[in-house]
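Course assignment 3, question 2. Fill in each field.
Student: A.L.
Task: Predict the tertiary structure for the chain below.
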Amino acid sequence: MAPTTTTTEGGLTRLNTRASQGREDGINGGRHATRRPSGLVVDSEPVSRLIHTAVLHACGVAAQDVETGVQVLELFASGTRFDIVVLDVSFSGMRPFETTRMLRAMDGQAMLIGITANDFETDRPAFLQAGGDELFAKPLTAAKLRRFLGEHGN
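Answer field:
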């Protein structure tokens, strides 16, 4: 299927690929990882989005980014799915732990990875309790992500 783009009511441009039609293989399942895993970075800071999108690319993940929790929830509500979602736990526009809970309810398979520049010891339990898979101090590096993915069979 050739990729196409669409624009949501909120003005978010989305690339429609096979990844948006469900997970048949890749990071979270399937016997044959024949496609590149898909990822999404959610962060209100443009430089942080750029850095963390590059980290996903360095790990072989096709990545997009959005600014707010509302935007990521719009994507998931439209049926778009990602193998990995990297969320800043202090992004603007919505309470991040609530966004994490809602994402987990919408997609039990996505790997939800939090990043924080705040108090790691306080944020980590709250993020994990909300349904996140792991929380890392900013910046997330390719080495940290590869190690985590390797430990979780991906």
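Instructor remarks: Helices lie at 46-58, 69-77, 96-106, 120-129, 142-151. Residues 1-32 have pLDDT under 50 and may be disordered.
Grade: pending
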